[in-house]
Amino acid sequence: MNNTQTKTTAIFITLIALMAATRADHFGSALHLPDASLAVFLLAGFYLPRWAFPALLVEAGLVDYLAINYGGVDGWCFSPAYWFLIPTYFVLWFAGRFYAARYRFSLRSLSEFVAIAFAATGVAFLISNASFYLFADYFAKMSAAQYGNQVAQYFLPYLQSAFLYLTAAAVLHIVAVQVARRAAQA
Are 44 and 56 in contact (CB under 8 A)? Predict the structure, then answer.
């Protein structure tokens, strides 16, 4: 296995483990880290080849299945809207691909990353919540405006969960690039 394959494998395994370890709790608690799925899909788009997207979708579905059927997690969110997690995660994965094509190791590029990640996370929030409103059959007596007001409170935690992991990944990326540059100069 060459160096690129080794890095790809290590990143893939890390992202799989991160999603598996955190997926059961959306926003986190005193005992659980928040769900890393949003960040995982964006980072996979940046670092990994195309085959990683469907592999991570399968993992997400399997983790959810196991959590609902064997882990005591409430299946309330599992509805026909669940299928809209595919475009939700695709937006994040595509944002990672989009940024990868523009990436340069610079402060300006880092600010572009933040803007792209913010926009993609916002669109993902809209897709997942609008589809849940439209297809979950829980909100027949609630107008779209009422629903929007109710779910707006979750936008900041949604962003915070994603950016917790994206910030850590950006710091690790910066350190890894600096270490590699110093090693190349030695």
Answer: yes
pTM above 0.85, yes or no: yes
Element (H, E) at 115: helix 107-135
Measured CA to CA, the distance from residue 113 to residue 115 in angstroms comes to 5
- Residue 174 carries which side chain, given as an amino acid letter? I
Residue 113 CA to residue 111 CA, distance in Å, equals 5
- For residue 36, the tally of other CB atoms under 10 A from its CB is 25
Instruction: Name the residue type at position 74.
Output: D
Query: Quick one: tokens of 32?
Result: 């659980």
Contacts of 115 (CB under 8 A, 6+ apart): none
Q: Domains of the chain: which residue ranges?
A: 3-185
- Dihedral sign for Cα 37, 38, 44, 50, please: positive
The answer to whether residue 85 scores a pLDDT higher than 60 is yes
- CA count, 13 A, side-chain hemisphere, 23: 22
pLDDT tens readout for residues 8-55: 999 999 999 999 999 865 544 545 688 999 999 999 999 999 999 999
* Cβ atoms 162, 39 nearer than 8 A: yes
Whether 71 contacts 28, CB under 8 Å? no
